[in-house]
Design goal:
Layout (H helix, E strand, L loop, with lengths): L6 E4 L19 E2 L5 E2 L5 E2 L5 H11 L3 E5 L4 H10 L6 E6 L4 H12 L6 E5 L2 H8 L4 E4 L6 H16 L2
Parallel strand pairs: 1-5, 1-7, 5-6, 7-8
Antiparallel strand pairs: 2-3, 3-4
The protein binds magnesium ion.
The site of magnesium ion has 7 residues, from loops.
């Protein structure tokens, strides 16, 4: 069987959901009586549709998951993870502004997982470049996270291991 990463890390904005939580939506968020998640103005908030399946797949493979976001809207981002019932998947959440190198150093410190055993999904090239320099296998997410991108990430990770 192909080697699996010991930690899968996800960006939030435009990776798990199609907006910037500090710009395009209006916290605080709540769950309305019909079960949908809405912001303060009643705007319906959604994840990319395959995100729960992606996280469930990683759980079934036994791969721990973490979040790394540079948003300034820390409370709103955490609230959305709770309202979408995703907290159970994320063993660690590093959510604060600044270079993602800091987020990954903290993840490494907390989990003991070497950078070479991590895979990272993010829509922004600057983060891919910064974190890639640490030796993390990085995947540039193009149209939001989905199962195909997950498979691509696991394959990229396995190939990097074979090349060591
Ligand atoms: Mg993003």
């Amino acid at each position: 069987m192909a080697p699996l990463p010991k930690l899968a890390v996800f960006d939030l904005d435009y990776t798990l959901w199609p907006f910037w939580v500090d710009t395009h939506v209006d916290p605080p968020f709540h769950k309305s009586s019909d079960g949908t998640v809405r912001d303060r103005r009643g705007q319906n908030i959604r994840l990319y549709p395959e995100v729960p399946e992606v996280l469930e797949r990683l759980r079934s493979l036994g791969v721990p998951v973490a979040a790394a976001s540079r948003t300034g809207e820390i409370e709103g981002a955490n609230q959305l993870l709770e309202l979408f019932d995703l907290v159970k998947y994320f063993g660690h959440r590093e959510i604060y502004p600044g270079s993602k190198v800091a987020h990954f150093e903290r993840l490494h410190h907390k989990t003991g997982v070497p950078f070479s055993q991590m895979v990272f999904f993010d829509d922004e090239e600057r983060n891919i470049i910064d974190v890639g320099k640490l030796g993390v296998s990085c995947i540039h997410v193009q149209n939001g996270m989905n199962l195909q991108t997950l498979t691509q990430g696991l394959e990229t990770f396995a190939k990097a291991q074979a090349g060591r």
